Amino acid sequence: MRWAAYLFLPVLLALPASVRAAGYPDEYALRPLQLPTRMVQIKAPVIVNLSRGSAGRPVWIPFDIRLGVSDDLELRLFHPVHGVCVRGCDHVYNDLGLGMLYSVMREPGMDLALLGALEVTSFADPALLRLDLGLGWKLVHAPFSIAAWPYLSLGLNRRDINGDSINVPIELAFQISYPTALFIETGFYGDARHFADTWSSPLGLGINYLVEYGMDLGAELKLTNPIGNGGSSDGRLLIVYLALRN
Fold first, then answer.
1. 14 within a domain of the structure (yes/no)
2. CATH of the domain at 84
3. Are the CB atoms for 12 and 42 separated by under 8 Å?
């Protein structure tokens, strides 16, 4: 399935310059929820585990590709677990997701879209399949923005180890200058049946820098669960990424 990561590359390279000037904001915090028609974005984050006792293992690259099919529909290829694992995983490549956003409301400064995705969180035995259903929402009030993607993730097989979960990713961003934005990533995640006992809430602080039109560099330091009930409260991640779009 690695070939799927390259599906949109010819599209990105072939688009004319007139499409590349589609009016998509350069400022990270002010961008709408979805990409415009025929715009493609490729993002490659390198994530390094910095948790006590396991620093540097694993290291992985969960790259994603977004394609604006129309002004209402965006498709996305992503990796829900590790993507390409550079170090410290049982498999170099073992997961893949295909998702979509479909706009149901677009007003000045606010977007609302339906969210759906099919995830293969493991190709190896046992193969695990999941279906995500939810909403995407973003409010932009320069120089601030807030976005949330609440969704229910349903296990489609092996329900004994692949149960349902509630997920509410949240991002707040502040455009401090034309090329530079700060953002905070947080949210709530947990088992759908036992949410009160299993919920976790990450907290990440990051910076996005616009190198030039269509190119972002970013970095983030994330605590995976500083206040939640589920899992370790000592998890730490360093994320560095490059994003390219036409």
1. no
2. 2.40.160.40
3. yes
